[in-house]
Amino acid sequence: MKPLPRDFYRRDARVVAADLLNKVFVRGARRARIVEVEAYLGALDPASHAYRGPTARNATMFGPAGHLYVYFTYGMHWCANAVCGEEGEGTAVLLRALAPLAGIPQMRMARGGIERMTALCSGPAKLCQAFGIDRAFDGVDLTRESRAKPWIGDDGTPPPPKPGRSSRVGISVAVGHEWRWFVPDDPNVSRAR
Protein backbone atom coordinates (compact mmCIF):
# COMPACT_ATOMS: atom_id res chain seq x y z
CA MET A 1 0.00 0.00 0.00
CA LYS A 2 1.32 3.42 -0.98
CA PRO A 3 0.40 6.87 0.37
CA LEU A 4 -2.22 8.87 -1.51
CA PRO A 5 -0.57 11.39 -3.87
CA ARG A 6 -0.69 15.12 -3.23
CA ASP A 7 -3.09 15.63 -6.17
CA PHE A 8 -5.68 13.53 -4.31
CA TYR A 9 -5.86 16.31 -1.68
CA ARG A 10 -5.60 19.24 -4.12
CA ARG A 11 -9.35 19.24 -4.74
CA ASP A 12 -12.48 20.63 -3.13
CA ALA A 13 -12.63 19.39 0.49
CA ARG A 14 -16.14 17.99 -0.09
CA VAL A 15 -14.87 15.77 -2.90
CA VAL A 16 -11.81 14.71 -0.90
CA ALA A 17 -14.00 13.94 2.12
CA ALA A 18 -16.21 11.50 0.22
CA ASP A 19 -13.18 9.90 -1.46
CA LEU A 20 -11.35 9.44 1.87
CA LEU A 21 -13.97 6.94 3.03
CA ASN A 22 -12.41 3.45 3.19
CA LYS A 23 -8.86 4.77 2.80
CA VAL A 24 -6.40 3.63 5.49
CA PHE A 25 -4.90 5.87 8.20
CA VAL A 26 -1.48 4.54 9.22
CA ARG A 27 1.04 5.25 11.96
CA GLY A 28 3.66 2.56 12.51
CA ALA A 29 1.94 -0.78 13.19
CA ARG A 30 -1.42 0.94 13.73
CA ARG A 31 -3.82 0.94 10.78
CA ALA A 32 -7.49 1.82 10.56
CA ARG A 33 -10.03 2.37 7.80
CA ILE A 34 -11.51 5.88 7.54
CA VAL A 35 -15.27 5.53 8.05
CA GLU A 36 -16.43 9.07 8.91
CA VAL A 37 -15.26 12.54 7.85
CA GLU A 38 -16.39 16.18 7.66
CA ALA A 39 -15.40 18.89 5.17
CA TYR A 40 -14.53 22.47 6.21
CA LEU A 41 -14.31 25.15 3.52
CA GLY A 42 -12.16 27.95 4.90
CA ALA A 43 -13.34 31.51 4.22
CA LEU A 44 -16.64 30.21 2.77
CA ASP A 45 -17.51 28.31 5.95
CA PRO A 46 -18.28 30.04 9.29
CA ALA A 47 -17.76 26.69 11.09
CA SER A 48 -14.18 26.42 9.82
CA HIS A 49 -11.12 27.38 11.87
CA ALA A 50 -9.92 29.18 8.73
CA TYR A 51 -13.03 31.35 8.31
CA ARG A 52 -11.38 34.52 9.66
CA GLY A 53 -8.02 33.93 8.01
CA PRO A 54 -4.65 32.54 9.06
CA THR A 55 -3.49 32.52 12.69
CA ALA A 56 -0.66 30.76 14.50
CA ARG A 57 -3.12 28.02 15.49
CA ASN A 58 -4.53 27.28 12.01
CA ALA A 59 -1.49 28.12 9.84
CA THR A 60 -1.17 24.53 8.58
CA MET A 61 -4.65 24.75 7.01
CA PHE A 62 -3.36 27.47 4.68
CA GLY A 63 -0.30 25.48 3.61
CA PRO A 64 0.07 22.82 0.94
CA ALA A 65 -2.56 20.12 0.53
CA GLY A 66 -1.84 16.67 1.89
CA HIS A 67 -0.57 17.74 5.30
CA LEU A 68 -2.00 16.93 8.72
CA TYR A 69 -3.64 19.80 10.62
CA VAL A 70 -3.90 18.99 14.34
CA TYR A 71 -5.71 21.22 16.81
CA PHE A 72 -6.66 21.14 20.50
CA THR A 73 -10.33 21.46 21.45
CA TYR A 74 -12.39 21.71 24.62
CA GLY A 75 -9.15 22.15 26.58
CA MET A 76 -8.48 18.40 26.50
CA HIS A 77 -8.73 16.72 23.07
CA TRP A 78 -6.71 16.63 19.86
CA CYS A 79 -8.38 16.42 16.44
CA ALA A 80 -6.75 15.55 13.09
CA ASN A 81 -7.55 16.90 9.63
CA ALA A 82 -6.20 16.45 6.11
CA VAL A 83 -5.47 19.81 4.43
CA CYS A 84 -7.14 20.10 1.00
CA GLY A 85 -7.48 22.43 -1.96
CA GLU A 86 -4.95 24.98 -3.11
CA GLU A 87 -2.40 26.61 -0.84
CA GLY A 88 -3.92 29.63 0.89
CA GLU A 89 -7.54 28.38 0.79
CA GLY A 90 -7.63 27.00 4.33
CA THR A 91 -9.79 23.96 3.57
CA ALA A 92 -9.55 20.59 5.30
CA VAL A 93 -11.27 17.30 6.09
CA LEU A 94 -11.74 16.33 9.74
CA LEU A 95 -11.18 12.63 10.44
CA ARG A 96 -14.18 11.74 12.64
CA ALA A 97 -13.99 7.93 12.98
CA LEU A 98 -11.86 4.96 11.99
CA ALA A 99 -12.37 1.18 11.93
CA PRO A 100 -9.30 -0.50 13.50
CA LEU A 101 -7.44 -2.97 11.27
CA ALA A 102 -3.98 -3.56 12.83
CA GLY A 103 -1.95 -2.49 15.84
CA ILE A 104 -5.02 -2.92 18.01
CA PRO A 105 -3.04 -3.70 21.22
CA GLN A 106 -1.22 -0.36 20.84
CA MET A 107 -4.51 1.43 20.25
CA ARG A 108 -6.04 -0.16 23.34
CA MET A 109 -3.05 0.81 25.46
CA ALA A 110 -3.14 4.39 24.15
CA ARG A 111 -6.87 4.55 24.97
CA GLY A 112 -6.37 3.43 28.56
CA GLY A 113 -7.21 -0.24 28.11
CA ILE A 114 -10.50 0.14 26.22
CA GLU A 115 -11.55 -3.35 25.14
CA ARG A 116 -14.57 -2.74 22.88
CA MET A 117 -13.25 -2.44 19.31
CA THR A 118 -15.95 -0.01 18.24
CA ALA A 119 -14.98 2.38 21.07
CA LEU A 120 -11.31 2.69 20.06
CA CYS A 121 -11.59 5.20 17.20
CA SER A 122 -15.29 6.17 17.09
CA GLY A 123 -14.77 9.92 17.37
CA PRO A 124 -12.15 12.53 16.41
CA ALA A 125 -10.54 12.71 19.87
CA LYS A 126 -10.66 8.93 20.33
CA LEU A 127 -8.84 8.25 17.08
CA CYS A 128 -6.13 10.78 17.97
CA GLN A 129 -5.67 9.08 21.35
CA ALA A 130 -5.55 5.62 19.74
CA PHE A 131 -2.88 6.74 17.26
CA GLY A 132 -0.96 8.99 19.68
CA ILE A 133 -1.63 12.10 17.58
CA ASP A 134 -1.02 15.48 19.22
CA ARG A 135 0.24 18.94 18.23
CA ALA A 136 3.72 17.52 17.52
CA PHE A 137 2.24 15.98 14.35
CA ASP A 138 0.72 19.23 13.04
CA GLY A 139 2.09 19.79 9.54
CA VAL A 140 3.17 16.18 8.89
CA ASP A 141 3.14 15.31 5.18
CA LEU A 142 0.45 12.64 4.72
CA THR A 143 1.77 11.80 1.23
CA ARG A 144 5.04 10.35 2.57
CA GLU A 145 5.26 6.85 3.95
CA SER A 146 6.83 6.82 7.41
CA ARG A 147 7.28 4.37 10.27
CA ALA A 148 6.86 7.03 12.94
CA LYS A 149 4.59 9.65 11.39
CA PRO A 150 1.00 9.25 10.16
CA TRP A 151 0.07 8.90 6.50
CA ILE A 152 -3.00 7.83 4.51
CA GLY A 153 -2.94 5.02 1.96
CA ASP A 154 -5.20 3.20 -0.46
CA ASP A 155 -5.49 -0.58 -0.11
CA GLY A 156 -7.85 -0.83 -3.08
CA THR A 157 -11.11 -0.72 -1.10
CA PRO A 158 -13.37 1.77 -2.92
CA PRO A 159 -15.50 4.36 -1.13
CA PRO A 160 -19.06 3.16 -0.50
CA PRO A 161 -21.30 3.62 -3.57
CA LYS A 162 -23.88 5.47 -1.45
CA PRO A 163 -22.15 7.02 1.57
CA GLY A 164 -24.22 8.30 4.46
CA ARG A 165 -24.51 12.09 4.65
CA SER A 166 -25.62 14.54 7.28
CA SER A 167 -24.90 17.94 8.71
CA ARG A 168 -21.67 18.23 10.67
CA VAL A 169 -21.51 17.36 14.36
CA GLY A 170 -21.03 19.81 17.23
CA ILE A 171 -21.25 23.09 15.34
CA SER A 172 -23.67 25.97 15.82
CA VAL A 173 -23.19 27.82 12.51
CA ALA A 174 -23.50 26.66 8.90
CA VAL A 175 -25.61 23.78 10.19
CA GLY A 176 -27.61 23.39 6.98
CA HIS A 177 -24.75 21.89 4.97
CA GLU A 178 -24.56 18.10 4.67
CA TRP A 179 -20.76 18.06 4.70
CA ARG A 180 -20.39 14.94 6.83
CA TRP A 181 -19.89 11.60 5.09
CA PHE A 182 -19.77 8.15 6.64
CA VAL A 183 -19.78 4.47 5.74
CA PRO A 184 -23.39 3.33 6.27
CA ASP A 185 -23.91 0.68 8.95
CA ASP A 186 -20.27 0.70 10.06
CA PRO A 187 -20.30 0.18 13.85
CA ASN A 188 -17.27 2.46 14.28
CA VAL A 189 -19.05 5.58 13.04
CA SER A 190 -19.54 8.02 15.91
CA ARG A 191 -22.92 8.03 17.66
CA ALA A 192 -23.83 11.46 16.30
CA ARG A 193 -25.63 10.29 13.18
In the CATH hierarchy, the architecture is Roll
Individual helix count: 4
Which value, in Å, is the CA radius of gyration? Answer: 15 Å
Mean pLDDT, rounded to whole units? 93
CATH structural fold name: 3-methyladenine DNA Glycosylase, Chain A
Number of domains: 1
Helix percentage? 10-25%
The helix/strand class is: alpha+beta
Features:
single chain; 193 residues; alpha+beta; 3-methyladenine DNA Glycosylase, Chain A; nine-stranded antiparallel β-sheet; 9 strands; 14% helix
Describe the structure.
With about 190 residues, the protein is α+β, with helices and mostly antiparallel strands. It has a single domain, classed as Methylpurine-DNA glycosylase (MPG) (3-methyladenine DNA Glycosylase, Chain A). About 15% of the residues lie in helices and about 30% in strands. Strands 1, 2, 3, 4, 5, 6, 7, 8 and 9 form a nine-stranded antiparallel beta sheet that branches.
How is the secondary structure organized here?
Blueprint: E1 2-3, H1 6-9, H2 13-20, E2 24-27, E3 30-41, E4 68-73, E5 77-84, E6 91-102, H3 104-110, H4 124-131, E7 151-154, E8 164-166, E9 180-182
Antiparallel strand pairs: 1-7, 2-3, 2-7, 3-6, 3-9, 4-5, 5-6, 8-9
Short description:
With 193 residues, this protein is α+β, with helices and mostly antiparallel strands.
